[in-house]
Design goal:
By secondary structure, the protein is α/β, with parallel strands linked by helices. The chain contains 5 helices and 6 strands; from the N terminus they run βββαβαβαβαα. Helix 1 links the parallel strand 3 and strand 4. The protein is globular, with a radius of gyration of 14 Å. The N and C termini lie far apart (33 Å).
């Protein structure tokens, strides 16, 4: 897969045949650094027309606690607005990062975010799940 963006904290790859982005997060991310990386994710979603994301956060470390409200109230909404319907999120091994991100997943209804403990299971699930063309009407009225 071609690498579209690479920093020590985030690598973005594009799987063109499957129409998705593969994100690999590493290390500690301040709220500002995470938002900068997420802006790059949005740019790459727009550039590639991807509809799904395989998000590997196994090597992600502490630092997300302060960014969770932004993640759930803004970033996921922005992802949905760019056409992302489904995210397979491989949870971090770091317990503090896992806890913070798990809190974010518990309040997210759209796009569909399903968590996994290993990349292989996430990949398999993402291959099988069908892309939904738009947010279900039952979720459109929910608060972001």
């Amino acid at each position: 897969m071609p690498i579209l963006y690479a920093t020590p904290g985030l690598i973005i790859e594009h799987d063109a045949p499957l129409h998705w982005l593969c994100l690999t997060w590493r290390g500690i991310h301040s709220s500002l650094a995470a938002q900068h990386c997420c802006a790059e994710v949005l740019a790459q979603v727009r550039a590639t027309g991807s509809t799904k994301i395989l998000n590997d956060a196994t090597e992600d470390c502490d630092g997300w606690e302060e960014g969770v409200p932004w993640l759930t109230k803004e970033f996921f909404h922005q992802l949905a607005g760019t056409g992302i319907t489904t995210i397979a999120w491989v949870v971090p091994h770091n317990i503090r990062a896992y806890t913070a991100l798990n809190n974010a997943m518990s309040v997210t209804a759209w796009p569909v975010v399903t968590t996994f403990t290993d990349v292989e299971a996430a990949y398999t699930w993402l291959c099988k799940v069908k892309t939904v063309s738009e947010e279900p009407s039952s979720l459109k009225s929910s608060a972001w």
